[in-house]
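Minutes, structural biology subgroup

Action item carried over from last meeting: produce the structure token record for F-box domain-containing protein (Panaeolus cyanescens). EB confirmed the sequence was re-checked against the source entry. Recorded below for completeness.
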Amino acid sequence: MAAYLYPDGVSWLLATTINSQMDQDNSRLYSELYDLIISFLYQEEQALRSCALVCRSWVPASRAHLFYHITLTGAPARASSWSVDTPCRRLFSALVASPHLASFIHKLSVREGSIADPRTYRWVSEEITFPPLLKKLVNLDELDFNFPVPGSSDTKTIWSTMVFRDISDALSSLKLQSFTIRQFCFSGITDVVRILDACRNLKTLQLDHVDVTTTSPLSTSALEHVFNIQPVNPLHTQSEIKTSLETLMLRSNSNSLLLPILQHARSPIDLTNLTQLTLNMDAENHRAVLDVLQTTPELASLELEIEPSFDFDAHLDPKDVIDLDQLPALKSLDLHVNVLLARVDPIPWLTALFSTARSDSPLADIALSCLIDKPPPYLTIQAFDRALQGWRVLDEVLSQSTFSNLKRFRLDFALDTPIGDGDGQIISDEFTNQLLKLTSKGVLEVDICEVR
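Output recorded by EB:
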């Protein structure tokens, strides 16, 4: 029977083990070996359920994998009362009946659907059992909120003051290592600070397309006031050591507000040991991004998405360019830029950036993603030649001994609204043909796609 329940090699191994035990009464495998075999089925829910029914000794290992990662979504309502049968309430009832199951849950993913699916649309703010459920997950390490991308007639998910208070209070009782929230909007700066204060053990923080309703940057005194009005959390003390963040993703239209909060002296987040960082940068948050990079000496991986509105020519001053010399541990750099011929040219700014590298830079992997539109009718040959000259200068800088550790320079070209099927290859070749030294060094990789 085992051979039909379990996939591929695992089914054969499990069936062989069982048959061998039945045939040899005097030989028994240690229970740890059964646990190891069952662990290969961690992605096979039905197989794990079957294993849990074989015998009592297989239950703990099967249950540990079955409950390790729980995903909650909305569900069809069967009645208009509290007893509506939803995944959240079923799980809450199970933990009330069997409290020991909560210790097996280490990762919780919360999903909401779009407005097109009323069953899953913004159910979290209406689910009264969700905050009590969080408080029961004593071993929860990772919490992931995934809200839908808003449509043209919709807005990002936002919680009421009461809902936010209940959820943040529940988070403060946990010891999360990773917190992720996508497509969300905080109603104010105080809510951001409250969430950070509730998560005092984080190693990974991901705020992906998360904004704040406040639009104007805060002054120093206003930001200080935000920290002063935070309610005192009895579980935390002012003398408590800050959480040392290792991975940070911050894609937001409100980075000019969020980054100063993270850097504030009273912030519960410490960025000095950050090793992985993903940010989007525009003219408004440019200075805040530079300030953050000056305080992350351990940074090993940086991904920077530069908004199309960013004016490269206006930020060529040395104080406006990222200083690689202040990032002595940086090994991977991923940059996303727009190249609008005869309008926006990021190459001089990028050349200035790479020129700041220290001798014997540890940079081993550089990725440059370029969104390039088709050349405008008024683009002259002389202007195009000047643009190509910039790529030759970049090739010269990256071929110096400073970048002796460089193993890969990857170029991803995305051609916007091409004229014909061969346009992508033709235009990209014009640029890559200028990178002769990187080509001869064997580190250049090129990929092309079209955006229509």
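Discussion: The chain is about 35% helix and 20% strand.
Next step: EB to file the record with the rest of the batch.
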